[in-house]
Amino acid sequence: MALKSVFDSSVIRAEFDKAGINNRFIPLIWKYVIQNPDCNWEDIPSLPSSAYTLLRAKFKASTSVVHSVFQSNDGVTTKLLIKLQNGAFVESVIMRYDSSLGKLNGKPRPGGPRSTLCVSSQVGCKMGCTFCATGTMGFKNNLSSGEIVEQLVHASRLSTIRNIVFMGMGEPLNNYSSLVDAIRVMTASPFQISPRKITVSTVGIIHAINKLHNDVPNLNLAVSLHAPVQDIRCQIMPAARAFPLEKLMNALQEYQKKSQQKIFIEYIMLDGVNDEEQHAHQLGKLLEAFQVVVNLIPFNPIGSLSQFITSTNQKVTRFQKILRDIYDIRTTVRKEMGQDISGACGQLVVNLPDKRSISNAAPLTDIEDIRRQ
C-alpha cells in the first residue's frame, strides 16, 4: 500500500484523531519538513512517540520529486517538471513579478518583487479545450491534496511564493475535494498564504462554483470564458456544452453577490474566431452588470497540434478599447511568460524541452495586483 503525503491534510488529521494524537503537532511537522526536505521522521523534535510510529507506517515527507527545472530566457519564469509517486508527471510554473509597477488610485503602488506559483490540479485534463496543449493529453488522474501542496513546497525552495494561481494542468473544480483541502492547508500555518492571494481558474463548472465561496471564502475566481456566445464556446471548448452560458452567468452573479469580489474573466484571442469587434460588443453586454477584470490572453502556439493563430496586436488593442471605452470594463492584456520553455498559458503538457539559461529581464506586473482597483 502506497504511503500518503504528510501534506494530505484530511488523511493525517483522521489518522491522528484515530490514534489519539493532538492535531496541533501537524503544522509543526509540516514546517520541519519544508525546512528539512531530506529529514527522517525521528529528526522532528518533541513529538509523542505514537506520532513517530504512525508517520513511519503511513506517511512520506514527499510523495513527489522535482525531475527537472527549466529556466526561461525571459529571466523571470521557471518551470518545474514534477514526478509523482505513481510515475506520472505534472508541471508547475514560478513567475516573478514586481508589485510596485504601475499605479494604484493614481499613486505609486506599495510592494516590490515577489513570485506567483501556477499549480496543477490533475494529470492531463478532460475538458478538451482545442487551444490548450494539456487537453491533448486526455485525463489521467486527479492529484491528491498532498500532491497539490507539494508543488508549493518544491517551489518554495526556489523562490518565496506569495501568490498561487490554479491555472496549471487540469480543471481545478473537477478535483473539488482535493482543491479545497489543499487551499485550506496553503492558507493555514506554516504556509499562511492569504486566500486573497489565491486564484482558482475554471472553465465554468456550475455546481462547484455554487459552493466554492462557502467552502473557501475570499478567493479570487477566474473564469475561462473565451467567447461571448454559447455556440463559439462549444466550438473551442467542448465541455461548455454541459455548462450553458446563461446558467453559468447566473451562477457567477450569485457568486459575486455572496463574495462581493471582482471576478477575473480570461479570454484567449483567436484570430477570426472570437476577436472581431462584434465579439467585443457581445462580451461587453454580457458582462456589463458584473464587477469584473477581463484578461485578454494572446494565443500561445502548441506546435503542429494548433489549429489557431493568435490575433494581431491591432485586433487586441481594438477589442480592449471597446470594452474599456464603451462598456467601462477593466481590461488588461496578459504579458506572456515562459513561452520558450512551454510554460505560458495553454502550453503545459508533459514533455522535456531543452534547458534554458536565465537572462536579465525586468520584472513584470501581475493581474492579481489589480484585484481591488
UniProtKB/TrEMBL annotation:
- What InterPro entries does the annotation carry? Aldolase_TIM, Methyltransferase_A, RNA_MTrfase_RlmN, rRNA_lsu_MTrfase_RlmN/Cfr, rSAM, rSAM_sf
PROSITE patterns, A to Z: RADICAL_SAM
Any one Gene Ontology biological process term? rRNA processing
Tell me which UniProt keywords the record has, alphabetically. 4Fe-4S, Cytoplasm, Iron, Iron-sulfur, Metal-binding, Methyltransferase, rRNA processing, S-adenosyl-L-methionine, Transferase
Radical SAM core domain location:
111-340
- Location of the protein in the cell: Cytoplasm
Q: Which cofactor does it need?
A: [4Fe-4S] cluster
List the record's Gene Ontology CC terms alphabetically.
cytoplasm
Q: Which GO terms describe its molecular function?
A: 4 iron, 4 sulfur cluster binding; metal ion binding; methyltransferase activity
Q: Which NCBIfam families match?
A: rRNA_mod_RlmN
What's this protein's name?
A: Radical SAM core domain-containing protein
